[in-house]
């Protein structure tokens, strides 16, 4: 299972256009045949950078990727990083066992 964490706001705190999220959703559905989007209650991220606390509201898109093509994900991650104007978009993989 792979999750991609997308910020709801740009670096100046303005809401990002819905079209950006739709584009990522469409690309992932096309590649993996579906996804789960956690959008109802945004997750809140907090971290410290340069001695200051930073905060971010995010949504999580999750896909089932049994093959885990790390190279594809590494390359793909650059697209939303550019579109969302982010230094880094977190993409994380988790081991999963179907029951």
**What percentage of residues falls in helices of 4 or more residues?**
25-40%
Quantity of strands, as a count: 4
Shape: globular
The proportion of residues in beta strands is 35-45%
Q: What is the count of helical runs?
A: 2
As for the number of domains, it is 1
Looking at CATH, which topology would you report? Alpha-Beta Plaits
CATH architecture: 2-Layer Sandwich
Q: What is the radius of gyration computed over CA atoms, rounded to a whole number of angstroms?
A: 14 Å
Structural class of the helix and strand makeup? Answer: alpha+beta
Beginning-to-end CA distance, first to last residue:
14 Å
Order of helices and strands: EHEEHE
Order of adjacent strands in the largest pleated sheet: 2-3-1-4
What oligomerization state is this entry in? single chain
Contiguous runs where pLDDT drops below 50 for at least 5 residues: none
Quick one: CATH class? Alpha Beta
In round numbers, the mean pLDDT is 90
Describe the largest sheet: 4 strands, antiparallel
What are the defining features of this structure?
99 residues; Alpha-Beta Plaits
Describe this structure in words.
This protein is of the alpha+beta class. The protein has one domain: Alpha-Beta Plaits, CATH 3.30.70. The protein contains two helices and four strands; from the N terminus they run E-H-E-E-H-E. It has a four-stranded antiparallel β-sheet with strand order 2-3-1-4. It is globular. It starts with a strand and ends in a 6-residue tail after the last strand.
């Amino acid at each position: 299972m792979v999750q991609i964490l997308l910020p709801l706001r740009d670096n100046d705190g303005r809401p990002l256009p819905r079209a950006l999220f739709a584009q990522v959703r469409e690309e992932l559905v096309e590649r993996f045949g579906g996804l789960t989007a956690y959008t109802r209650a945004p997750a809140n991220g907090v971290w410290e950078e340069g001695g200051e606390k930073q905060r971010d509201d995010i949504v999580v898109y999750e896909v089932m990727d049994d093959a885990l093509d790390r190279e594809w994900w590494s390359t793909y991650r650059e697209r939303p990083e550019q579109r969302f104007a982010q230094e880094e978009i977190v993409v994380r993989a988790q081991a999963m066992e179907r029951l």
